[in-house]
Amino acid sequence: MTLFHRLALVLTFVVSLLAGPAGQPAFAQGFGPDLPGSGPAALLPDYEQWQRVATRAARVSESGQASEYALERLRSELLDWRERFLAAQSTNAARIDTVRRQITALGPLPTEGQTEDPLVASRRSDLESELARLRAPSLLAIEAHAEASGLISEIDQLETGRLTEVMMTRGPSPLNPANWPEAIMLLWSGMDSVIAETLGGIAADQRSGALWRNLPFAGLLAVVGLILMWRGRPWGRALQARILSVARRGQGVWYFLLSLLQLVLPYAGVLILIEGAKAADVMGYRGLQLAASLPDAALFLIVSRWLSGHYFEGRDTGMLPIDFGQDERRQGRKIMFGLGWTLLASTLVLAVAGVDPSQTATAMLSLPSYVLIAIFLFWLGRLFVMHGSDSDGGTILIRSKILTVVGRACQILAILGPVLSAIGYSSASELMLFPAVKSLALAAVVVLLQKLVTDLYVLVAGRAAEGSDGLIPVLLGILLLFAALPILALFWGASTDDLAEIWSRFHHGFTIGDSRISPTDFLMFAIIFAIGFTLTRLVQGTLRTTVLPKTRIDIGGQNAIVSGLGYVGIFLAALIAITSAGIDLSSLAIVAGALSVGIGFGLQNIVSNFVSGIILLIERPISEGDWIEVGGQMGYVRDISVRSTRIETFDRTDVIIPNADLVSGQVTNWTRGNSVGRVIVPVGVAYGTDTMRVDAILREIAEAHPMVLLTPPPNIAFMGFGADSLNFEIRAILRDVNFSLVVRTEMNHAIAARFKDEGIEIPFAQRDIWLRNPEALHPKAPASAKAASAQPEDQAPAAPAKPVLREED
Question: Considering the entire predicted model, what is its pTM?
């Protein structure tokens, strides 16, 4: 066969796959106006079948006699129908919108006394009839959706009532000795059945020879499983210690990831051991039941020891999520060890008792485990309370308060659980103790995951100073808490259908007028906007660090381009997110009008600053790094944002200037375009000094300074005759005006030294003080004494006269 024939055969095969039964392409089947099963009608639910389901559900709800399994099946079926009805509510949505716009285009209905053109009236009537026909499937779906939701609520109320009845029904007390024989016989018969079935299976396989054929493989699996169960945890800890000894970064991450081996290896050993027992083919029905419950029972012990290793066995306290003391850790290890073995034994005892033991036997067999669990739970709560009362300060104080509350709750449940079980409420006790233990384990895992997220953030971002106080670790920790809520609800009696119902209501949203607002729309908006915002920041960073530095654009222009691109990117991201999420903003027109009025009155300053910021970014009269003076403030421009500009003064303080002041006010830019500027140094000399000599000395000093430009040359100005001195000024152009203060200081030092050498006096102001009545400073003693004796006793002596001062130059 030639290559051409092979290609022809392949092409024929592909065409035959794409063709329909009548030779029509498969992708075209089901479409077209004249094909059966096409169009929106093919998507509509079968309402006749729905009525049969709804009638059956109503009968079940009224009778209340269905089993739990039947109720769950019926509820799942109703949920499926409700999803169909929700999807059917959008039938003909695009066409309905088009017809409504057509009706709106015809104008409003004529008022009383007015007539409408017959053609327009006929067209309006046709469109209204078309709109009613198009809305019929949606209205039927809305009605059926409401009926399905009501039936689901009735089933939920029925299940809740049954659960409440079970919890409130008092059974036989396990403290009654008359109930003990039944439980003991049930446990003994279960163990005897497992042993008898196993021995019988061994004997049967030995006679048939299957035992010796299965024994090598089963024995190998059993040996591997036992080794992993025995040495899995020590091997994981040894590998963890070895890697942590050489790892310099991310030790918290490695510590957690390697600790998972302490979970995986022992649990894998349990599973391999069970497979080995099954491979031997010697277990009977009860033995297989016991083997099926062994993984769950072993998981209690493995997880309790793993959590104990993270919270109570860490040698390095920096690896511990909670810094327990040495005595607290030792006590915590004992509690976790006893709790794990108790849960394992309780699970195996109930498995040995059988599939469906009586209520009396269950209460009797469960009481010892309930008591032990309550004891360990009480001790653990006391440990939390003691640790919480010893901690103080900041975040530790908040965590300590949480530990104290959790500890008190554990103690209360530990007291109520055994008491309820002892008086006959065994189901209520079970629904308290086991969910409490599982909830504590879940909380411990969430705290470990939050610490892992923090360690990962420090490892990736390299911000060890932020740690758990960083924004990203805090947000991810909150997300972990929300993710743990469904699991927590399952622990406390919620079913997967309950969670599905909550998610369905969250997904459906709520209706306002003719619009349905779904939280998932806002979630979609947030995701798309976050992606657009991230891409905008990435492009900004690329331009700022890679592209723009290679151009001839100055720093101010580069910052303007980057800032403008950021605003445009954020606007486009918001616009695309709104469009993609399907959020209808047409109903916000009135709100936008009211907002515009608010902007006109209350937000005019903010809008003015915003517009001024855009003008600054476009015209760029000032740039980052410029030395400016505005409103009595002088400093360097450090940042230009849309609303304000940040200036760093020479005192190293930041001053925030509204952009409107920079646009409408007077601004002095000392370094716009270049850094060349003039410095003025005033100098005064005594009267009688040779002015031309002073001019020559000052010119020499100015020209000798390295920062002074010689083109144009510095100028010495004789400013005039002052009150105390002859006033001169050095006016020089500097290469960099930013050093004007330094230049002025150095010139003053040079002037003082040169004038001292030349004998030129720098005058200073002098004042002569004349006393008009100097005799007032020396009063006559006898006259004063006589005047004092002549005064009455109740009259105070007169104050001495003060001299009058007169100042003359």
Answer: 0.63
DSSP 803: P
Distance CA 651, CA 65 (A): 84
Which one has a higher pLDDT value, 728 or 650?
728
CA distance 214 to 208: 12
pLDDT value of residue 695? 92
Note the pLDDT of residue 408: 92
Element containing residue 124 per DSSP (H, E): helix 118-168
Residues contacting residue 570 through CB under 8 Å, at least 6 positions apart: 532, 533, 536
- Angle at which helix 251-259 crosses helix 261-280, to 10 degrees, equals 10
CB 265 within 8 A of CB 306: no
Q: How many CB atoms neighbour CB 514 within 10 A? A: 9
Overall average pLDDT of the 408-433 stretch: 88
Q: How many CA atoms lie within 13 A of 544 on its CB side?
A: 14
Q: HEC states along 594-653? A: HHHHHHHHCCHHHHHHHHHHHHHHHHCCCCCCCEEEECCEEEEEEEECCCEEEEEECCCC
pLDDT at 808: 46
Are the CB atoms for 683 and 755 separated by under 8 Å?
Answer: no
Q: C-alpha angle 143/146/150, rounded to 5°?
A: 140
Query: Is residue 647 within 8 Å of residue 628, measured between CB atoms?
Result: yes
Calculated CA dihedral for residues 417, 423, 428, 429, nearest 10 degrees? 30
**Strand-pair partners of 727:** 684, 720
Closest CA to 803 of 776, 769, 768: 776
Residue type at 182 in one-letter notation: E
Q: Coil, helix or strand for 771?
A: strand
In tens, the pLDDT along 446-484 reads: 999 988 888 888 877 665 555 556 677 888 888 888 889
Confidence of residue 196 (pLDDT cuts 50, 70, 90): confident
Structure token pair of residue 5: 């024939």
Task: Spell out the long-range contacts of 242-247 with Cβ–Cβ below 8 A and sequence spacing 24 or more.
Answer: none
Q: Tally DSSP H helices, then E strands, for the chain.
A: 24, 12
Which residues are within 8 A (CB) of 597 and not within 5 positions of it... i.e. 6 or more apart? none
- What's the residue count for the chain? 809
What does the pLDDT look like over 324-372, one tens digit per residue? 888 888 899 999 999 999 999 988 888 887 766 777 777 788 888 889 9
